[in-house]
Specification:
Layout: H1 2-12, H2 17-27, H3 32-43, H4 48-54, H5 59-71, H6 74-123, H7 131-159, H8 162-169, H9 175-195, H10 200-208, H11 215-228, H12 233-239, H13 246-253, H14 257-314
Helix pairs in contact: 1-2, 1-6, 2-3, 4-5, 5-6, 5-9, 6-14, 7-8, 7-14, 8-9, 9-14, 10-11
Membrane topology: Multi-pass membrane protein
InterPro entries: GspF/PilC, T2SS_GspF_dom, T2SS_GspF_sf
Subcellular location: Cell membrane
């Protein structure tokens, strides 16, 4: 985020992209070698968006920067991306705070479970009741499945291409937020292109020429193909998960491109606010979910400890 914020600030103060990149090795000496190589590539004619891709930014972010650069809105786009990443960092801090207490409880439970397995259970090895063991085994399997799913989701989020977005948007917990995020990016880009006087056909053509696999490129290609097959724009908007339904209302207003551009940017702002609220709700719901799992694990540990004792007492 610091890099995007620095570039946006540099452009605002009258520096060019080339001059801004020359300052990066001084500001971030640990990555000086990488920044110097990127600076040479920029001087050699490589595009700014491609260089940002080499710095680890996703295809979708690279495409958004390329669109902004083409339309002369790079400073605004960098500021918008900085705002988005600032929100992400703020929510991650909240998530860390919400998970701190459950993580401590889980660590304590693991230590207690190891103690029970090595010392307590040995005393009741002859007991035939394994209800607690089965419950704990089921919870461990569930935790492994949950962790695997989380790693897959993080992998898809790192890619941020069309297929990854589409898969994530179909998931029950994170799906609505991913859909809002994709719709926000597309609505913002539509607003920029409409402000530059692009028609629908030109927007599809321009988008389809962007970074292969990015959200904008794949969506532009799909919309163009569906229009050629005879589908109406209304049908396409209803079917595509990353085209906001409010765009249908804009089509019916009959506004000119400048007004449509402003309205698309307003929709983008609304979607950003919605995205923020959805992420906050997700984070708030994570801690109760963790406590439910911890409660089930505690029940399993009690069963593992008490049922063998109860069985031994019955044998007296």
């Amino acid at each position: 985020m610091e890099l995007l914020e620095f570039l946006a600030s540099s452009l605002q103060n009258g520096f060019s992209i080339a001059k801004s990149f020359k300052m990066l090795p001084i500001l971030w000496p640990k990555r000086a070698g990488l920044f110097k190589r990127i600076d040479r590539e920029l001087a050699g004619g490589k595009s700014f968006a491609e260089c940002m891709g080499e710095l680890g930014y996703s295809k979708t972010t690279v495409t958004q920067l390329n669109i902004a650069l083409t339309q002369g809105n790079l400073q605004e786009s960098l500021a918008q991306l900085t705002q988005l990443r600032r929100m992400q960092r703020r929510q991650l801090k909240k998530l860390e705070g919400e998970l701190a207490y459950p993580v401590v409880l889980v660590v304590m439970m693991i230590i207690l479970l190891v103690f029970m397995q090595n010392f307590v259970s040995v005393q009741f090895a002859e007991s035939g009741d394994h209800t607690g063991d089965l419950l704990i085994f089921a919870l461990v399997a569930f935790f492994v499945l949950l962790l695997t799913s989380l790693l897959l989701v993080l992998g898809y989020l790192q890619k941020q291409d069309y297929q990854s977005f589409k898969k994530l948007s179909q998931l029950p917990f994170v799906g609505p937020a991913i859909s809002s995020y994709g719709q926000y990016l597309i609505s913002y880009d539509l607003g920029m292109l409409l402000a530059s006087g692009f028609s629908l056909q030109k927007m599809c053509l321009f988008a389809s020429q962007q970074t292969p696999g990015s959200l904008q490129q794949e969506l532009g290609r799909r919309v163009a193909r569906q229009l050629e097959s005879g589908k109406s724009l209304q049908e396409i908007i209803l079917q595509e998960p990353f085209l906001n339904q409010n765009l249908l209302i804009l089509l019916k207003t009959g506004s000119d491109r400048k007004e449509l551009s402003q309205q698309c940017l307003l929709i983008a702002k609304m979607l950003f606010d919605r995205l923020t609220q959805q992420v906050e709700r997700m984070i708030v719901n994570i801690q109760p979910f963790c406590f439910i799992l911890i409660g089930l694990a505690i029940i399993g540990m009690y069963l593992k400890l008490l049922l063998p004792i109860y069985g031994s007492m019955q044998g007296l």
